[in-house]
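Whiteboard transcription, Tuesday session. T.W. wrote the C-alpha cells on the left side:
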C-alpha cells in the first residue's frame, strides 16, 4: 500500500520494514493526512541496506529504540530525511493540526514509543521465531519474490543477531509481558475518563497506541493493519493465549475500535 500523489507533486519515499508497528504508525499518519508517498517495503536487515543506499550512507538520526539505519525513513521530495516515526507523524500532522492538541498528546506519543513499542516488538519476535518457517512466510506475504528469496538466505544469521539485539530470552520475554500489561492497564484506566486518550477527539496519542499495540493484538489487514502479520491459527497455545488476553483487555478493545473507526475509514 502507498499513498497517491495529489496536485501533480512528486510523492515522498517511505522506506519500511513492512510488518513493523513503528512503520505502521508512519503509514497511518501519512494516509490519514493524505500525504502523497511511495512505500518501499523490506524485511529485517534488508531494510537497513535499503536505507543506507537511499541516503547514500548517511542514514538518519538514531533514537533510543533504533539505529540510524532503522526504518521508517521518509525521504521528503525536498531532500530532507525523516528517520523517526514520530517525526514522520509530526510531518504529516502539518496537514491536520488536530492530531497534536496540547502537551499531553506529545507526551503520550513519546511515552508509548519508549514504554510500549519495544516490548510488543520483543514479544512478537519471541513467538514468531519459535515457529519454524513463520518469518519466511512473512517475507513471501509482504515483499517481492526477489527480496523474499534473499531474506530467506539470511534467516539463520538474522535469528542470532535478533536474539542478542532484542534480548530474546525467557527473562526478556517475562519482563516484556510485565511492561505490556502495565501499559494496557494504565491505558484502560485513562480511558475511563474519556472516549479517547486525550479527551473526546482522536489524536496522535490514540494513533500511536493502536499502532504500537498491534503486534500483540495481531491486527489483520482486514482490520486495518497496513501489512500482513501471521495468522492466529499458526501460533501455538502460549501465543494464542497471549493474543486472546490482549484483544479482550479493555485497552486492546480500544485499539481494535480505533482501527475499525479510524484506520479502516482512511483505507476505504
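and on the right, the sequence the group agreed on:
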Amino acid at each position: 500500500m502507498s499513498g497517491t500523489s495529489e496536485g501533480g507533486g512528486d510523492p515522498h519515499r517511505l522506506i519500511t520494514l513492512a510488518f513493523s508497528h513503528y512503520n505502521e504508525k508512519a503509514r497511518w499518519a501519512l494516509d490519514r493526512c493524505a500525504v502523497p508517498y511511495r512505500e518501499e517495503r523490506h524485511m529485517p536487515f534488508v531494510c537497513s541496506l535499503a536505507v543506507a543506499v537511499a541516503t547514500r550512507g548517511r542514514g538518519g538520526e538514531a533514537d533510543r529504540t533504533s539505529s540510524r539505519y532503522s526504518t521508517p525513513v521518509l525521504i521528503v521530495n525536498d531532500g530532507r530525511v525523516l528517520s523517526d516515526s514520530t517525526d514522520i507523524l509530526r510531518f504529516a500532522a502539518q496537514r491536520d493540526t488536530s492530531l497534536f492538541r496540547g502537551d499531553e498528546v506529545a507526551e503520550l506519543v513519546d511515552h508509548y514509543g519508549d514504554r510500549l513499542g519495544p516490548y510488543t516488538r520483543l514479544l512478537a519476535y519471541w513467538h514468531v521465531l519459535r515457529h519454524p518457517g513463520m518469518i519466511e512466510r512473512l517475507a513471501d506475504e509482504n515483499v517481492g519474490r526477489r527480496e523474499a528469496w534473499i531474506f530467506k538466505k539470511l534467516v539463520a544469521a538474522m535469528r542470532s543477531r535478533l536474539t542478542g539485539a532484542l534480548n530474546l530470552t525467557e527473562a526478556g520475554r517475562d519482563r516484556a509481558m510485565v511492561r505490556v500489561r502495565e501499559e494496557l492497564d494504565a491505558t484502560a484506566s485513562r480511558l475511563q475518563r474519556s472516549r479517547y486518550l486525550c479527551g473526546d477527539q482522536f489524536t496522535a496519542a490514540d494513533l500511536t497506541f493502536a499502532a504500537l499495540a498491534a503486534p500483540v493484538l495481531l491486527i489483520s489487514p482486514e482490520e486495518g493493519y497496513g501489512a500482513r502479520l501471521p495468522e492466529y491459527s499458526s501460533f501455538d497455545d502460549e501465543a494464542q493465549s497471549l493474543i486472546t488476553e490482549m484483544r479482550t483487555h479493555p485497552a486492546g478493545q480500544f485499539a481494535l475500535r480505533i482501527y475499525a473507526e479510524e484506520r479502516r475509514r482512511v483505507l476505504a
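Someone added at the bottom: Residues 4-8 have pLDDT under 50 and may be disordered.
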